[in-house]
Amino acid sequence: MNKRIAVVSGGIGGLGTEICLSLARAGRRVIALDLSAREERIAQFAALTDGFDIRFEAANVADYDDCGAAIERIVGEDGAIDILVNAAGITRDGSLRKMEKRAWDDVLSVNLDGVFNLCRHAIDGMAERGFGRIVNISSVNGQTGQFGQTNYSAAKAGMHGFTMALAREVARKGVTVNSVSPGYCETAMVMAIADDIRGKIIDSVPVGRLGKPSEIARTVEFLTAEDAGFITGANIPVNGGLFMSF
Q1: Cβ distance 130 to 174 under 8 Å?
Q2: Nearest to 86 by CA among 28, 169, 164, 15
Q3: What domain range includes position 96?
Q4: DSSP label at 3?
Q5: Is the pTM of this model over 0.70?
Q6: What dihedral do alpha carbons 191, 194, 200, 204 form, nearest 10°?
Q7: Catalytic residue at 152?
Q8: Is the confidence at residue 1, as pLDDT, over 70?
Q9: How far is CA 123 from CA 25, 117, 130, 173, 214, in A?
Q10: Average pLDDT value for residue range 162-189
Q11: Is 115 a domain residue?
């Protein structure tokens, strides 16, 4: 059987890179979708993924037409897309009383509109072929809310609402749609937090540590497996027990 084609948005970020590597190790051909302007990071990504069946493709997930063009290029060069992981995300933190409209728009356009933009262009092909795996990377803060993140929390909560609705639409087409909600992980964004604040975060996590990007990637790989077809519309928490619900 030919390799499954997997597209990972935000693919050259710390979490995205681990997801790309995990999927490649599982035998998928992986395309990392990200902004072309990040030249230094693209070079680092190329070095980290050397020897794996992974390549970079430029796209702005906040731009509907740009996403469509990128999907078209990928299908033409690599083949039909079987797996889509929406991992692109940004933060523009600030309390609502001080938040500028631009900070709201930027976060919603990347974190939530980006999911629509890519899914809209990929879903028809998956449904027509009778196979697809979509995984949306949400956040524990979409479940609990977080001070200074009305924009981010709204986008991440909305992402799972999107997941559940699309899962119902394509369930009988062989396409699954799930969310993964990471807690605080060892990413550049979290490690940039002041030591004392990061220490308090770690103290609040029942397992007593930050998550590893590889632990998120392992969950994504599991949800995209051939034999994971009976899991859809689910939100899988990977947060060290930071938030537990029935």
Answers
A1: yes
A2: 15
A3: 5-238
A4: P
A5: yes
A6: -30
A7: yes
A8: no
A9: 25, 10, 11, 10, 27
A10: 96
A11: yes
- Residue 92 domain flag: yes
CA neighbor of 239 nearest in space, from 218, 196, 209: 209
pLDDT at residue 209 is higher than 80: yes
Q: What is the rounded CA–CA span in Å between residue 108 and residue 102?
A: 10
Cα separation, 211 vs 214, whole angstroms: 8
Q: Where are the beta strands (DSSP E) in the chain?
A: 5-9, 29-34, 54-58, 83-86, 132-137, 175-182, 235-238
How many domains are contained in the chain? 1
**CATH code of the domain containing 148:** 3.40.50.720
Tokens standing for 26? 């599982």
- Own/partner pairs, 128-131, CB within 8 angstroms, 24+ separation: 129/80, 129/82, 129/174, 130/173, 130/174, 131/82, 131/174, 131/175
DSSP SS3 for 166: helix
Q: Which of 56, 152, 162, 184 is catalytic?
A: 152
